[in-house]
């Protein structure tokens, strides 16, 4: 698979299981890219919803994507600390200048003190019925949710102390 270059500006495309576009982040700068991981940064980037509405992100963020994990993680740098938004999703692919993934509705919001809440379980059940998520997808998503919660609780990977700040520093250097 092609991978983006460090310093390259890419879009992020979120789709739903039925193939319809869900959301597009206009510009994210790649700060690290390997065969399995892409870490990007953005700040006040334009986001376009599936219905055409747009909005602008409010704070700098570091985004973590993996080709083997069924989730992605956004670490937002706010005045009171790092807030995380975790999407249960397909692994990403890089295609035509964009990181692309399928959003499977389930989300985890993590606060600076590492407490968290699960979000959108009703939306997941509804979309699972409407879009006929296969049983195997449900099993994969539940297993990856468990792994994600383990990482949060153990403060591992993107949740380890200093991870977001380190990559934000690299992002800041690239954007000078």
TrEMBL record:
<comment type="similarity">
    <text>Belongs to the Ntdp family.</text>
</comment>
<dbReference type="GO" id="GO:0000287">
    <property type="term" value="F:magnesium ion binding"/>
</dbReference>
<dbReference type="GO" id="GO:0017111">
    <property type="term" value="F:ribonucleoside triphosphate phosphatase activity"/>
</dbReference>
<feature type="binding site">
    <location>
        <position position="87"/>
    </location>
    <ligand>
        <name>Mg(2+) 1</name>
    </ligand>
</feature>
<feature type="binding site">
    <location>
        <position position="120"/>
    </location>
    <ligand>
        <name>Mg(2+) 2</name>
    </ligand>
</feature>
<feature type="binding site">
    <location>
        <position position="123"/>
    </location>
    <ligand>
        <name>Mg(2+) 2</name>
    </ligand>
</feature>
<dbReference type="GO" id="GO:0017110">
    <property type="term" value="F:nucleoside diphosphate phosphatase activity"/>
</dbReference>
<feature type="binding site">
    <location>
        <position position="105"/>
    </location>
    <ligand>
        <name>Mg(2+) 2</name>
    </ligand>
</feature>
<dbReference type="InterPro" id="IPR016882">
    <property type="entry name" value="SA1684"/>
</dbReference>
<feature type="domain" description="DUF402">
    <location>
        <begin position="18"/>
        <end position="156"/>
    </location>
</feature>
<feature type="active site" description="Proton donor">
    <location>
        <position position="23"/>
    </location>
</feature>
<dbReference type="InterPro" id="IPR050212">
    <property type="entry name" value="Ntdp-like"/>
</dbReference>
<dbReference type="Pfam" id="PF04167">
    <property type="entry name" value="DUF402"/>
</dbReference>
<feature type="binding site">
    <location>
        <position position="103"/>
    </location>
    <ligand>
        <name>Mg(2+) 1</name>
    </ligand>
</feature>
<keyword id="KW-0460">Magnesium</keyword>
<keyword id="KW-0378">Hydrolase</keyword>
<dbReference type="InterPro" id="IPR007295">
    <property type="entry name" value="DUF402"/>
</dbReference>
<dbReference type="InterPro" id="IPR035930">
    <property type="entry name" value="FomD-like_sf"/>
</dbReference>
<comment type="function">
    <text>Has nucleoside phosphatase activity towards nucleoside triphosphates and nucleoside diphosphates.</text>
</comment>
<feature type="binding site">
    <location>
        <position position="107"/>
    </location>
    <ligand>
        <name>Mg(2+) 2</name>
    </ligand>
</feature>
<feature type="binding site">
    <location>
        <position position="107"/>
    </location>
    <ligand>
        <name>Mg(2+) 1</name>
    </ligand>
</feature>
<protein>
    <recommendedName>
        <fullName>Nucleoside triphosphate/diphosphate phosphatase</fullName>
        <ecNumber>3.6.1.15</ecNumber>
        <ecNumber>3.6.1.6</ecNumber>
    </recommendedName>
</protein>
<keyword id="KW-0479">Metal-binding</keyword>
């Amino acid at each position: 698979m092609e991978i983006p270059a460090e310093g390259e500006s890419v879009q992020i495309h979120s789709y739903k299981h039925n193939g319809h576009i869900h959301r597009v982040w206009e510009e994210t700068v790649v700060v690290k890219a390997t065969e399995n991981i892409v870490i990007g940064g953005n700040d006040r980037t334009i986001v376009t919803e599936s219905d055409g509405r747009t909005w602008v992100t409010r704070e700098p963020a570091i985004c973590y994507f993996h080709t083997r994990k069924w989730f992605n993680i956004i670490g937002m740098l706010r005045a009171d600390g790092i807030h995380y938004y975790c999407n249960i999703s397909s692994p990403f692919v890089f295609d035509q200048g964009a990181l692309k993934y399928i959003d499977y509705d389930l989300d985890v919001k993590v606060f600076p003190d590492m407490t968290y809440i699960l979000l959108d379980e009703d939306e997941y059940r509804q979309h699972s019925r409407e879009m006929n998520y296969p049983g195997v997808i449900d099993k994969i998503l539940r297993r990856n949710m468990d792994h994600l919660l383990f990482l949060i609780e153990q403060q591992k990977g993107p949740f380890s102390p200093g991870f977001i700040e380190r990559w934000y520093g690299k992002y800041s250097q690239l954007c000078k």
